[in-house]
Specification:
2 domains; Pnp Oxidase, Chain A; alpha+beta
Length: 506
């Protein structure tokens, strides 16, 4: 695992060896989207209460060239534009991360995982690693000033000036939905950056939606344990898209999101210290909110139309108090909406699926591929293909996945054989419907569930299911002959391939 964590810091190159430069800020990303025809400017007056959501929802569910990023330039009552659906396709996600396709990042990581094992016998191999590591590790670069401080408001700062969206009719209010929330652990000083929604209560306060399983909540609890009365918090909105993605990534606690971002963007993230708190934020952010969360203060937060397609219920959460606001002179307010898939957040999750697959394979080598289908809203379903070499291996893989970080929330794990294309959900379901014996092949376990899961009788935990849809072998108690799949012979396929164009069937 230590090697995997180290590799998060290593320099990456494209397959062709050409370095792809990162965007310096959100504005460069917007310009790139527009240059490719992937962004549409909306000049028609629109309301940030529900109307922007409805427009964006319709566009996010379109396909091809119609599914574009949206820049709303005429939001009623505000002089700040709203950026929506910027990550809403695999092509835009790849552009955001500086690659041709997301799997390129996974391929780069796989190559790095092949670094030689250093021992007394091959100790000279370390000479090969040092030059690569020296140019590889991109720790944050701390600067004295940055564009995010072009405007500084310490006297009665208010978020009323920003076009914060009310997304869905039953939402408890307006929500900041694309924030990068920065905190420090009081014991270690280590930074955490997470994406936790913020419900606007008034100009100076918001909710702080720290789920109990998240690292931000860990920092909150550690402050309580040390007898502190508050935790300093900074919220950055709008930056290089790699940073926004990094805030969503399921990194181990000891991996700094800004170092991870440095790996992805192939250069250091410039950070600047806040004005009123001891926290650093990306220097090229559009908007920064500074403040604190009192450790003994809770307020009702929610409901909120969530990525499950259902409203997450109202509950008591900490309160964020704003002490200072800084922003660029003409800030752009990026936001997102979540709901019934497909939506923008689905593609952020798909990026994580591809990028973190090599690390999953390092821990569970028999895994060939994984698909987190959009309908499973990240944590409700994982389809996994494996190289099966011994009895009950599928069940071993299920339990291993449930023991890995945020994969513990996976409510359904389906295991199929190596040759099955898990990206084709129809093929996976065909295997499930045909291959399983319910008594033998279905596993049910109790364990943690995502806070947003509404189906379990108790909050935060419930029953999960594993389905072994692999070919059963005699050693697993299946003494009957397992039939061959129906497949056409290769010679006939070749004959038809040669005739196909002449048949004029396409």
């Amino acid at each position: 695992m230590k090697l995997a964590l180290l590799l998060l810091n290593i320099y990456c190159k494209s397959k062709e060896g050409a370095i792809i430069l990162a965007f310096n800020d959100l504005r460069e990303f917007i310009a790139a989207l527009e240059a490719k025809g992937w962004l549409k400017r909306i000049k028609e007056p629109v309301d940030c209460d529900l109307e922007i959501t409805e427009i964006t929802d319709r566009v996010s569910k379109m396909t091809g060239d119609k599914n574009v990023a949206l820049l709303f330039e005429n939001v009623k009552g505000y002089d700040i534009p709203v950026l929506m659906n910027a990550f809403g396709s695999m092509e835009r996600m790849a552009l955001a991360l500086g690659v041709e396709k997301i799997d390129d990042i996974a391929d780069e990581i796989r190559e790095l995982l092949k670094l030689p094992y250093i021992s007394l016998k091959n100790k000279l191999d370390v000479i090969k690693i040092i030059p690569q590591a020296k140019k590889a590790i991109n720790f944050p670069k701390y600067v004295k000033n940055g564009p995010c401080k072009e405007v500084i408001i310490k006297d009665q700062p208010s978020i009323d000036k920003f076009p914060i969206l009310k997304c869905w009719p039953q939402d408890g209010g307006k929500f900041i939905t694309l924030p990068m929330v920065f905190t420090k652990n009081p014991k270690t000083g280590k930074r955490n950056v997470g994406m936790y929604r913020l419900q606007k209560y008034d100009g100076q306060t918001t909710g702080m939606h720290w789920h109990i399983h998240k690292n931000g909540a860990d920092n909150f609890r550690d402050h309580i344990e040390m007898g502190k009365d508050r935790i300093e918090v900074a919220v950055a909105i709008g930056a290089d898209p790699v940073l926004t993605y990094a805030a969503t990534a399921p990194l181990p606690r000891d991996v700094d999101e800004m170092v991870f971002a440095g790996m992805l963007r192939k250069k250091s993230v410039e950070m600047v210290k806040c004005e009123t708190i001891d926290v650093e934020v990306p220097a090229h952010s559009e908007i920064v909110l500074e403040g604190y969360v009192l450790l003994d203060e809770l307020r009702r937060e929610g409901p909120f139309g969530d990525h499950t397609g259902y409203y997450s219920l109202a509950d008591m959460y900490p309160v964020f108090h704003i002490t200072c606001i800084t922003h660029r002179k003409d800030p752009i307010y990026p936001s997102t909406i979540v709901g019934k898939p497909p939506m923008e957040d689905c593609f952020l999750a798909k990026a994580t699926e591809r990028i973190f697959l090599p690390f999953l394979q390092q821990q569970i080598p028999e895994i060939v591929d994984i698909n987190l289908p959009l309908e499973g809203v990240f944590h409700n379903c994982a389809m996994v293909s494996i190289k099966k070499t011994y009895p009950q291996q599928a069940k071993k893989v299920m339990h291993a996945i449930w023991g890995m970080g945020q994969m513990m929330f996976t409510k359904m794990i389906i295991i199929v054989d190596a040759h099955v294309n898990v990206q084709d959900t129809n093929e996976v379901w065909w295997r499930v419907f045909n291959n399983i014996d319910a008594r033998r092949d279905i596993v049910m376990v109790d364990g943690p569930l995502d806070v947003l899961d509404h189906s379990s009788p108790m909050p935060n935990w419930g029953t999960k299911v594993g389905i072994d849809a692999t070919k059963s072998v005699p050693a697993e108690g299946h003494t009957r002959e397992w039939p061959d799949e129906i497949v056409m012979s290769e010679d006939i396929k070749k004959i038809v391939d040669e005739k196909w164009r002449r048949l004029n069937l396409e």
